[in-house]
Amino acid sequence: MTRLTVPKTYKLYIGGAFPRSESGRSYEVVSPSGAFLANAALASRKDARDAVVAARAAVGRWSAATGYNRGQVLYRIAELLDGRRAQFVDELSRSEGISTAAAGAQVDAAVDVWVWYAGWADKYVQVAGNANAVSGPYFNISVPEPTGVVAIVAPQDAGGLLGLVSVVAPALVAGNTVVVVANERAPLSAITLAEVLATSDVPGGVVNVLTGSPAELAPWLASHADVNALDLAGAERLEWVDLQIAAAETLMRVLPPVTGIPGPSLERILAFTETKTVWHTKSLL
């Protein structure tokens, strides 16, 4: 007897749960050859707003964790991602039309990126912070702190998993929370990664994954007054200048589009931090 395949419907990931789009919309995800792979939720403006609300609610808990604790959580994500390697390889090879070897290399690179950023979680403050020279009986110390909620357009041209990891991980290191719009044409690995996050130690709302059209969702995120930073890494084909203008209305920090997938860098961590300077009187005893 021949078994029928069970078409899978990939949902959104918002606030630690997997809801359907509030609009009820979905779209077909197909392989480069046009073969049907799955259905994915087509996120709406309301879904984007719900994701921002969830991300805002999670800022306090995530940013209050120690750098060491955040690093351990990121290491755990890498462990779980590596444990589901076969599933990621299968999804990437089918949705991106690449060989099993190339898909495996992408999964391995994504794991390495998680580990690289995890290692910085309890170290970037020492590198970016400093004790400032002042004239007087004071200590003057500058330290980086998280900026808050970061909205991200993931790379869209290739690397559905590696591209997503490369933009989400650096925002998490410093204690920010994330709303990310996944690769529109190859979103399967993004939601599978969300399943990894849901079974790890990441608090609900710290990462929120939207699937669908970046052209539809990015303008709402760019103009949202409760978003603190905007990473347009994958917005090269969008009207990204208009998105920057919209973000400027709320004094939102903006990272411009990049070509390809951004490599691991300390600069991407610090891009989502604010510098806080503290004065303290020296003891006169």
Automatic annotation (TrEMBL):
Domain Aldehyde dehydrogenase intervals: 21-236
GO terms assigned for molecular function: oxidoreductase activity
Keywords: Oxidoreductase
InterPro entries registered for this protein in UniProt: Ald_DH/histidinol_DH, Ald_DH_N, Aldehyde_DH_dom
Pfam families attached to this UniProt entry: Aldedh
PANTHER family: ALDEHYDE DEHYDROGENASE-RELATED
Protein name (database record): Aldehyde dehydrogenase family protein
Native organism: Galbitalea soli
